[in-house]
Amino acid sequence: MTTPLTDLARRLPGLRLLTDAGDLEHYGRDWTRRWTPAPLAIALPATIEEVQDIMRWANERHVAIVPSGGRTGLSGGAVAANGELVLSLARMNRVLGFDAVDRTLTVQPGIALEAVHTAAREHGLIYPVDFASRGSCSIGGNIATNAGGIRVIRYGNTREWIAGLKVVAGNGELLELNRGLVKNSSGYDFRHLLIGSEGTLGIVVEATLKLTNPPPSSQVMLLALPDLDALTQVFAAFRAKLSLQAFEFFTDVALKHVLANGAQRAIDGEHPYYVVTEFDAVDEASQERALEVFGHCVEKGWVSDGVVAQSEAQAAALWRLREGITESLVPYKPYKNDVSLRIGEVPAFLRVMPARLAQEYPQLEVVWYGHIGDGNLHINVLKPADMADADFIAQCERATKLLAATLKEHGGSISAEHGIGLVKRPYLESTRSVAEIALMRGVRKVFDPNGILNPGKVFVDA
Amino acid sequence: MTTPLTDLARRLPGLRLLTDAGDLEHYGRDWTRRWTPAPLAIALPATIEEVQDIMRWANERHVAIVPSGGRTGLSGGAVAANGELVLSLARMNRVLGFDAVDRTLTVQPGIALEAVHTAAREHGLIYPVDFASRGSCSIGGNIATNAGGIRVIRYGNTREWIAGLKVVAGNGELLELNRGLVKNSSGYDFRHLLIGSEGTLGIVVEATLKLTNPPPSSQVMLLALPDLDALTQVFAAFRAKLSLQAFEFFTDVALKHVLANGAQRAIDGEHPYYVVTEFDAVDEASQERALEVFGHCVEKGWVSDGVVAQSEAQAAALWRLREGITESLVPYKPYKNDVSLRIGEVPAFLRVMPARLAQEYPQLEVVWYGHIGDGNLHINVLKPADMADADFIAQCERATKLLAATLKEHGGSISAEHGIGLVKRPYLESTRSVAEIALMRGVRKVFDPNGILNPGKVFVDA
């Protein structure tokens, strides 16, 4: 009797298969680094047909498949720790076509986000979804988690930019979902069901992305805020009068770290909260309007101090105060959480959550920042130098339980943009009801009757 | 043994139930007027609990339910012709709340679209989805069909404006989908699955709608085009330079009807195609840019003539040439089709389809117009005065087969924004594959195991 892997190699003699220990480790994990990689092998198909053939083999031989992109995920969605076959889309990474009238770019799933940006710019357009891992993450992975990032307030999540998807479902069928149409009211929109399903329903093998005109010239402002209520007041005032491209928040604790890491202080004095905002500034009128809104917020006592960037260099320096936070925390091996709330609910949540954490886990320093204009908070818990890794993870997981319970009280979500994967799976019920999770299991069973695709991610099959 | 209806009345003594012949006829049909209404009764619940109780009763007694909004649909999605209980949301029509920070309006499903517009304006904001049936259609029905309309090119379909949905699923469970969050990557996004599912998965009992700032001031232009290729050339040129609010198309045949119905001619001479476009014109610079694009198109030979509205009255007069078409065709009892293609594919499709129809059905006059910026064409077939109704419908249905086959060749959709309902059901396979339809049946079975909700709409249960 042949092993499943020998069988696969025999059926698909042209398929690139890797089984070296180094490859198994490399392709078996993502950025979470919490699970020990243990895949059966790595398959690197070059065509849609090969992906389908692998899925047919997997269904016949009951081998689990982990679809794999850039593996920059932070939720363990692409981890293969249980003898799964990793199906890496890394070789399917080309631009397939550009349509000037429809303004769409058709790509293979393994292409890096940055290469999509480059291809769009070559046609004088932009693909507006963007975040720090752009050089390594793949568009297929972006689609699998409905990735967000820093411009969501203006452009929405990945979901908004998908005109069509080719997907190999768990049952091996190739689905051509929506085929680039703007309007299509012909039955259930499975494109949207697939987006954000973290590889548990199907494998994206081709995507048609919408592009758009580049944004107009913009202005960057840094604001210091005296208290939490000011956060939503300032946001509402700015959004009412300006066309926002970003509205980001961080605390004095986050500022401390980023300054220690070499960023330049831009506002003097002690302030508990900061906002970096960027907005359209096409002419003097819009610049004046921005100063008016700023003046109004100062007058109301919502803003204690502020700086408007006067040059591109200064704009970059202000942005560094926000964008440099992640890097400044790396030495502390942070445990990351990524949660969301309705925007208006953020102050109420921030009034209770940090205090609860401080009380229960006084040893842990917690750094808060995020995309406040989307109600999205990133929470980084720093490992004390004298605490063992396992001890730290255990404390953080207990802290996440507290976080999940508090989020539930405030109607929030345990995952804003990182996905559920393995990391958040124990907390899914804080965000989705038992009835919804039962429906998820049922829907998965329809697309993937044998439970082949990414089993154990998001939820455990019944 | 009690009848199911007696049983319902006994279980829910407070439920408003209508059984008069006039009510059965009124609530049993939509704007299609093709099926003879024959519902069991009409239930008008006032609360979510009553909707859930009705669904539990329906599951126990195996009574089919037709969810019912404003019944302005054009695809028979709200028709009750087989002894179903019509569950009308007409009494659940209130605004429940407004959130100034999140800029959301929470409403009951039976509220008319126009009332949503009014409520948004009271807060200085807009709900940007709009179409002619605004006074009668309900937001629940808009969600069920992912309704589009005239501003999709700027604002997208209904889907883009739904921050949260409360839904009673076919199995009776109350689902709270997404709860107003901007970012929420925590498992399958059933909100998007429900949108456009035409009442076959669940009943929307509450919706949280996103609002936005009103658009800037705009300019309206009418263009005459010499040929089909010009259509996409002009569109691409305008979209590259201007921020479009609308880009609508109609033919000389459509113009003939609307002029005969009292509209004023705005461009002299004979031209085969016309475009009405509206775009942001905030200042002189953007007005100049518009004239430059216009000049460029004339120079290229893509535009034969054009008019820029110089006043609001003239803008309205130009718009009437497009918006007055539907009304001008009413006397001809038109058979309506509503299809879509990728925008760039529209000219190729229009080169073959009208000719095919003219060849096969020389007696039928066909009027073409639509939202060309969305690849959406409305097709109105006019009934010859001397043709019997049944004969006309039969010819039109055969013509729709030809239409569906041609759409399939061009990668189009048999329903752009009206939905599938009963009218388009025979043609669903021209747009969706057999594998996709099988998945739809499976997903419906998960949400509605007994097949209670709107059976026979979109597809027939297995």
TrEMBL record, chains A, B:
One Pfam assignment: FAD_binding_4
MF (Gene Ontology): FAD binding; oxidoreductase activity
Cofactors demanded by this protein: FAD
UniProt xrefs under Gene3D superfamilies: 3.30.465.10, 3.30.70.2190, 3.30.70.2740, Uridine Diphospho-n-acetylenolpyruvylglucosamine Reductase, domain 2, Vanillyl-alcohol Oxidase, Chain A, domain 4
Entry keyword annotation includes Flavoprotein: yes
Record-stated family: Belongs to the FAD-binding oxidoreductase/transferase type 4 family.
Keyword set, alphabetical order: FAD, Flavoprotein, Oxidoreductase
Entry-linked InterPro entries: FAD-bd_oxidored_4_C (IPR004113), FAD-bd_PCMH (IPR016166), FAD-bd_PCMH-like_sf (IPR036318), FAD-bd_PCMH_sub1 (IPR016167), FAD-bd_PCMH_sub2 (IPR016169), FAD-linked_Oxase-like_C (IPR016164), FAD-oxidored/transferase_4 (IPR051264), Oxid_FAD_bind_N (IPR006094)
Protein name per the record: FAD/FMN-containing dehydrogenase
Keyword Flavoprotein applies: yes
Domain FAD-binding PCMH-type: 35-214
UniProt-listed PROSITE patterns: FAD_PCMH (PS51387)
GO biological process: respiratory electron transport chain
PANTHER family, per the entry: D-2-HYDROXYGLUTARATE DEHYDROGENASE, MITOCHONDRIAL
